[in-house]
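Lecture 7, part B: from sequences to assemblies.

Below are the input chains for today's worked example.
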Amino acid sequence: MRRPTNSKPVSGASSSSWFGISPAVGGLLFLFFLYAWLRIEPAIEYQHSGPVFLLRRAFLLPFLQYPGGLLDYAAALLSQFNYYSWLGALTYTLLAGLLFIAARAVLLQGPGRGASGVALAFPFLLLVVREQYDGSAVAVTLGLLLATASAGLYGALIPKPWRGLVGWVLLPAVFYSAGIWPGCLLAFLLATLEASRSGLKFVGLLLVIPIMAVVLWCLWFYEASSSPLHLPWIKDPVVWGTVCALYLLLPLAWLISLLQHPDATLPGLAPRPTDQKNPRPTGRAGLGIPRWVSQAAVLVVGWGVVWAGLALPRKRAAELDYYSSCREYERVLATAAVMARNEMNVASETRLHSALYHTGRLAEELFSYRSQRTWDLLPGLGGGLDSCRAQSRTFFELGLVSEAEHLAHEALENEGERPELLQLLAEVNTLKQRPQAARVFLHVLRQVPFHGGVARTCLRDLDANPQTISGCELDAVRPLMLTNDLAHQTFAAEGFLVQLLRRNPTNRMAFEYLMAQHLVNLEVNQVVDRLWQLDQFGFAGIPRHYAEALLLYEQSRGTHVELRGRKIRAETLERFRRFTEAMNQRQFTTESGRQALAREFGDTYWYYYFARRSETRQS
Amino acid sequence: MLRFTLATVLLGGFALAPNRSPAGIPPLLAGSEDALTILPHAPRVFPDYAGITLPPNIAPLNFRVEEPGARYRLEIRSTHGPSIKLADRGSSFEIPPKAWGALLRNNLGQPLYYDISVECAQGGWRRFETITNHIAREPIDDHLVYRLLKPLYNAYVHLGIYQRNLENFEQRPVLENQKFGGDCLNCHTFLNRDPGTFAFNIRTSNRLNPLVLVGSNHVARVDKTMGYLSWHPSGRLLAFSANKISFFSHTQGETRDVFDAKSDLGIYRVESNTVIFPPAVADPDWNETWPAWSPDGRDLYYCRAAPLPIEKYRQVRYDLMRVRYDLDRDAWGQPEVMVASQATGRSACQPKVSPDGRWLVFCLCQWGGFPVYQASSDLYALDLATRTYRRLEISSDQADSWHSWSSNSRWLVFSSKRLDGLFARPFFSYVDERGEFAKPFLLPQADPEFYDSYLNTFNLPELIAGPVVVKENDLAQAILKPLKVLSPKDDSQQSSPAQATGQGDEGQSNYRRIGR
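Predicted structure of the full complex, as structure tokens:
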């Protein structure tokens, strides 16, 4: 099978390649697809940080108000395919493939044809952007694709007399639809293309004028706003650097090639057979290295960078979000178990606590997850806006429906119309006997791609019975809801949990959260005082952390607590004996001692208790 | 078609409907020959536009028929001019604006009829009882300015003040917060409904909380924190409240609430760029808020309550007050209670006097001074001639608040949560000479389904007599990079006690310093 060569014109691709995609490149794209599907898992990004999109005209209108808006709109639309990981990966692979074709075509048309292999770098860099989980990869790819494809089509299809005029139209159009960076890239590509083709260097520069005029216009018009800069990817330094590399790739390739062949002028798409300054490829890269070696090196380095570039902390946080939304609590715990301390945020901790509760392990393993930072089960709005979505579901399940509503609205304002929030707010309003308000949220949910069916079912349910939505937890939550009005300026978790238990003494979640809250607040006496309630909730024995708190209490008070037939596990008693011995040897006073204690007792309440007390004293 | 017309006439629904020529009638409407069943009740429509009085210059009242059917017909007719005939397979009707406008203009003071027929899934048409509305002679001010925001949150991302042309469906931003850093903006207040002169507040996290003052040929930033605003009709004074407001939450009913720990009224003198706190309306023993000048500028209405700690928020009830003011002498009278909370058992808020000086509409709610978060909030009208007040029949079982009068005193717009209990929507009501308020109707939208999925709440709708023409960027620039910054001076040194009160205040200091 004949490999495509750099000198092949785009329109004359050989029978063994399709638009310049050889089997080797096809294989690369297939690996790209598999990597995006199985390692990046677009569905995780969709749940965690994917852009909001609604299928209605009014949703489009704001995107028309600023340069780059249409690109954002298209990216938001395409990002909806991430709902299914395979579909999201396929979409991204198609975009990457198109970008590869367009980039190669552009390079082959200009003086950069000697560096057309640079196009191979695009897939790798795109994967690096994508695996940062900041939601901007599709928009970045689309912007690059639009600029590059526009330049490629311009060079391939527009006859010389029309090129100036088309360039003047094309540049503002790309600038308006895709923003400043795709506009600038296109301006550069067109200018360089014109300069290299016709030899009229200043013609190319003239093409820059329209884009500069638009930029100035935009800066004047939007002087009070940063929107014209359109830098959604500036938030993260890795994304920022990678996107800069993506945008600089073509200009650098051209510039390098131009420096190598300063007199290069191209008469059209077909290369000059007699052009001695642009010789046909010899099958060897520079420095006498065989081309296949250099390409293999690019592939190895590229995949190495991609593999190492995965933003694992972000992926894990996103996984917690995703698995939690799917109620796959075991996977939540498995992910949380490998997270480092700086990877946990309030939202992650909230999801961890929820998973622990739903798997019956809140009282057994809460302190096994040492990566927690805030150790607060219900921080409320104090946990920050980014935690509101995660917390709103927990509040709802507890029966604190108004607080859940408040936090869900905060998240709605902060994150937009995410399906999870719309569904929750529909449930909240149904419980609060506002079925018409619930319908408003469901009507919005109906406009979210892939969620229309669920929304329509819920709407039908509300038509049949304004009190409930099938498939939701409304019947479970309704008896837990507070019936008295507790006005409050700040959220005090303990007080509300106590009220929930007063309202419904069978509210097991409130009980476990209250006990956990007492534990993390070092209130062992409160834990012991509530041990009698274990009977109410059908606990067979004494959960480990409660027993650990009980042993601490008994030792510190020198008293024995009557457990009414319950027994502390022998294993716990034995560990406590060993822990006491270690503490008696003042192990906690030295760093090495603390580390030894952490290795043996890091999953116990005792270790948390003394570590927290030590921190409190130091602070 | 003949059978349809014949049945219509025979059943006495209407007299000869003008212009029943099939020309221009959609095929769906013209082609049916099915039998017609007459139903003895009106169809359910959303928005509920049945039995209302509408302005002659309002945009088409597009609506949806909430009756099952396979095909739908609508004929809108009045006494003069051609009727409007529509037919569709869908239940939503979007009325042609030109034909609608002509029909309304030609029939001032006349009834407006809606004949709605629905074809059953099994075949055969059913015609409902005719919906009859009334076209008022008096137009409504052609623009409405409101703030759009989500109903329940503390942290702002997107909010803005918008203007809607009531004669069509055009909505344009007056100012969106994304133009100046995403901060909060609120309390837009116009001088005598003039779109060229208005003020609004900015709440920022890292700057002052300034007032933006828009005049006929300038936009200025006034670096002074002000609350609720009211222009003196002369345009020389701006009454404002200085509040110490905090939010709190409930676990039952409306989730959010507002508590005002301390408030006074102040006067900003626009010409001299000075601020005063007249003792008459800035009494340390009372919390004064919600200022509203009378149209002649001789009375300032406001609300007043005794200061209480937040724990007693349920006992906070405001009286409706009035105090005389002499602009020429800059003299204040003694405050007098117009509606006592002790008598009503409820809290008065948001007084607004009609431009003809006849009526004062205000809110009464269970407690506190922020009625939009109180489902108990109803609209009341105080007859300023007789000083009697009554609950308005246009009130609902949900929060009704943020009302505003039209220039001709014939229209009242207000925000109501009556549709769903969560989202406030603007409703209009016609007010006749006797103070009767007609059934309110919802702000029409081009898409009859608009309100089904609209997550923003309409806050503080204000009628104005024309579009706001100042550019959005000029307003944003006035906040971020103002060409003109005014820092109001404390005017307490310039006024003697006797001059200030006009009533003799036994030598007390008349003005207190700003920013107590």
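Note for the exam: The radius of gyration of chain B is 25 Å. Keep this in mind when comparing with the next example.
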